[in-house]
Structure formats: structure tokens, C-alpha cells
Design brief:
The protein has 2 domains: 44 residues; 101 residues, Up-down Bundle (Four Helix Bundle (Hemerythrin (Met), subunit A)), CATH 1.20.120. Helices cover 81% and strands 0% of the residues. It is built from 5 helices and no strands. α2 runs antiparallel to α5 and α3 runs antiparallel to α4. The longest helix has 36 residues. It is elongated and about 90 Å long.
Length: 154
């Protein structure tokens, strides 16, 4: 039997079913992509400190772990501020037209050294904090820190 269009009703139902399934899968895919971008945009709006604190809150730390985390945060804040202040001075001198080429080279080396010392201090502080965590907490923190703490693009 065929209908007015010359197709059998079972083919039309199959076609409509396939179109409905395709639409459902496409909507699911688009929703997943939109959710992914919304999540990463929200993380991109956070400072590194806020992202670390969000991850730390998810770990359900004990008092000793919380104290170690606070120590890590304080070290990062204090040493980061000192590095930024020292490098701001160096960059201001580099921008000064009266600065000689030899001084510029030395100032750039100083800025790199300041950054390197800060990174070493940060690594030491993070290492001390990570040693207080359980293996599961440590794996979670490292995974989240590596995947979610990239600075927002400017």
C-alpha cells in the first residue's frame, strides 16, 4: 500500500524517527558544548587565587591541611607582590631613554631572576602543602590545578 505521495507509511515513520533522533543528538551535543564553554568562561573570570580556593574547598581538608593551604596562599601573595614590585621598577628603568644598553640587559636579567626566584618559592610552598594531602586529595588538587588554573586571556 502507498499513500498519496507514493511512499509506504512505515518508511515515513522510520524517516520521521531518524530525524527526531538526529535532532535529539544534535541538541544534546550543542548543550554539551555550550555548557563546556560556560564553565570555562566562569573559570577564566576567576583569579588564580580564587580558582585554587575553589579547588581546595572541594577537598574537604582537615585543620592541618587548611593551615598548610593558608601558608601556601600567603607565600604566593607576599612573594608575588615582591616580585611584581621589583620587576615594575626594572621595567620603569628599561623604559627610561637614559638607560644604557648594558643596563637594559642587566635589568632584563634581573627581572628574569626575580621571576625564577618567585617560581622556586611558589614550588616549595606548594610542595609543602601537597605533602599534607592524602593521595586522593593530592591527585584531585593537581588535576584541577593543571586543568583549571590557566590565566584568562586578555
Amino acid at each position: 500500500m502507498s499513500d498519496a505521495a507514493g511512499t509506504r507509511p512505515s518508511r515515513r515513520r522510520w524517516l520521521l524517527g531518524a530525524l527526531a533522533a538526529s535532532l535529539a543528538l544534535n541538541l544534546f551535543f550543542l548543550g554539551t558544548v555550550a555548557g563546556h564553554f560556560r564553565h570555562h568562561r566562569r573559570l577564566a573570570g576567576m583569579s588564580q587565587r580564587e580558582r585554587f580556593e575553589r579547588v581546595a574547598a572541594d577537598l574537604k581538608m582537615n585543620d592541618a591541611q587548611t593551615a598548610a593551604f593558608q601558608n601556601f596562599q600567603t607565600t604566593m601573595r607576599v612573594h608575588g607582590a615582591a616580585m611584581r614590585a621589583a620587576n615594575a621598577t626594572a621595567w620603569a628603568r628599561i623604559a627610561d631613554p637614559a638607560t644604557s644598553p648594558d643596563q637594559i640587559t642587566a635589568l632584563l636579567g634581573s627581572a628574569v631572576k626575580n621571576r625564577s626566584e618567585f617560581q622556586q618559592d611558589a614550588a616549595n610552598a606548594m610542595g609543602k602543602f601537597l605533602l599534607t594531602l592524602t593521595p586522593t586529595q593530592r591527585a584531585t588538587f593537581v588535576d584541577e590545578a593543571r586543568n583549571n588554573t590557566r590565566p584568562a586571556r586578555r
